[in-house]
Amino acid sequence: MRISVVGLGKAGLPLAAVIADKGFDVLGVDLDKNKVEKINKGINPLEEEPGLKRLISSNAGSHLKATSDPIKAAKSCNVHIIVVPLFIGKNKKPDFSMLKNALESLAKCLKRNDIVILETTVPVGTTENFVKKILEKGSGLKAGRDFYLAYSPERIMTGYSISRYVDFPKLIGGIDEKSTEKAYKVYSSFISTPVKVSNARTAELAKIAEGVYRDVNIALANELFMASEHYNVDFWEMRDAAKHEFCNILEPGNVGGHCIPIYPWFLINELDAPLAKAARELNDGMIHYYMKKIERLNGKKGKKVGIIGLSYREGVKEKAYSRSAALIDLLKKKGYDVYGIDPLYSKEEIKKEFGINHLENFNKMDVIILMNEEFGYKDKLKRIKNKVIDVKNVLIKQ
Ligand SMILES: NC(=O)c1ccc[n+]([C@@H]2O[C@H](COP(=O)([O-])OP(=O)(O)OC[C@H]3O[C@@H](n4cnc5c(N)ncnc54)[C@H](O)[C@@H]3O)[C@@H](O)[C@H]2O)c1
Predict the structure, then answer these.
(1) Residue nearest to atom 6 of ligand 1 (CA)
(2) Is pLDDT at 301 greater than 70 in this prediction?
(3) Structure confidence at residue 135 (pLDDT)
(4) Rounded distance from Cα 159 to ligand 1 centre (Å)
(5) Ligand 1: which atom is nearest the Cα of residue 68?
(6) pTM over 0.90, yes/no
(7) Which residue among 259, 317, 319, 392 is the active-site one?
(8) How far, in Å, is the centroid of ligand 1 from the Cα of 158?
(9) Cα 138 to ligand 1 centroid, rounded to whole Å
(10) Is the pLDDT at 328 greater than 90, yes or no?
């Protein structure tokens, strides 16, 4: 078995490294030549991922190699795992271009008995329609007869990507029984809990369902948070009081990153899905609620507002769908003077990526909003807590 992993991003690279560490030869493919070079030198390009550094440094050049030539990888490997991203555009429709590009390169050199597995989160039916069609057309081979095709969703979360390959069941569903069996055998050799499901569609929907589940439950928490403030009730006390076996309210807050804000649209686009849609809108709309709080708390046009936590989530240096970035836009449109700080970004990066100045002096701000669970500024903030909006309850948490 010689495995290629196409797309060495936050999902693909940890997977490639885990497989290599189990003793299999992995050829990772990425169009980013700089990343490929780093990996081949044994340098970890994803510093925030615990455990990855060791896996890369001990396997690079032996079991783990990388290339920016997809044709070379397609020719030399017989198992091809694809983990390139799928984004949605402004119209919320998925943009398949990166996936199409990866599949077309692979199709050119696909061989008899090869196994192709898609891990990218996709709309239901993508594997047995879109993927199969491109591979069959480009290779002249027939899926299920000449080569095997399955879907197995990556379920990683940045910061926990290595441990999740150990702790989380790995769902596997093929376009037919033989494909399921073949893909199951592949994952069984390096994953401790592979789980077969009836078909690719089941695995695809299970992955989307996970995202929708979290989105809807966070929306519920956000709604109850707003209700608590309306009734002058401490949300966190109420949440604890309401807790029992059948009631576990999640924490309210921001939903960002390129997973949860995207996947519900795969359902909403196709079958309306009113609950998923309402949750999406409610979570995205929380910045307007924060805006009203800022306005109430001494913030008027021209006033200085500081934002703590700029990335979409604490601990992950990623701006995709960051609600802080959306709040910055809103504040700027309303004429506020906006400053920001995030332990993951330098002063220069804050200016370049978020278009605001670095938040130096907390005392000079009229309002400070703590968007992520950042504990590093707690003592300073406690001294000025009357002008702090604490979205994640950081000042109270231990
Ligand atoms: N990052 C996360 O925490 C996370 C969590 C769950 C799911 N996912 C999912 O994982 C999948 C991949 O996302 P990611 O976070 O790894 O993306 P990423 O942006 O970190 O990396 C994607 C990589 O793919 C490469 N690439 C793009 N097109 C390519 C092609 N044709 N051939 C080879 N390489 C190509 C890019 O250069 C990039 O290095 C998506 O489905 C995403 O939704 C990510």
Answers:
(1) 156
(2) no
(3) 98
(4) 15
(5) 33
(6) yes
(7) 259
(8) 12
(9) 23
(10) yes
Q: Which domains does the chain have, with CATH numbers?
A: 2-197 (3.40.50.720), 208-390 (3.40.50.720)
Q: Which atom of ligand 1 is nearest to the CA of 316?
A: 3
pLDDT for residue 194 is more than 90: yes
pLDDT digits 0-9 by tens, 128-147: 999 999 999 999 999 999 99
Atom of ligand 1 nearest to the CA of 29: 33
- Cα–Cα distance for residue pair 362/85, rounded to 1 Å: 38
What is the 393 CA–ligand 1 centroid distance (Å)?
Answer: 32
Ligand 1 pocket by Cβ (under 6 Å): 6-12, 29-32, 35, 70, 83-86, 98, 101-102, 120-121, 154, 156-158, 258-259
**Could you confirm whether 259 is annotated as catalytic?**
yes
Atom of ligand 1 at shortest distance to CA of 158? 3
- pLDDT, tens digit, 9 for 90 and up, residues 144-162: 999 999 999 998 877 777 8
Residue 296 C-alpha to ligand 1 middle, in angstroms?
41
pLDDT score of 48: 79
Identify whether 319 is a catalytic site residue. Answer: no
299 band by pLDDT with thresholds 50, 70 and 90: low
- Of 35, 65, 182, 207, the active-site residue reads 207
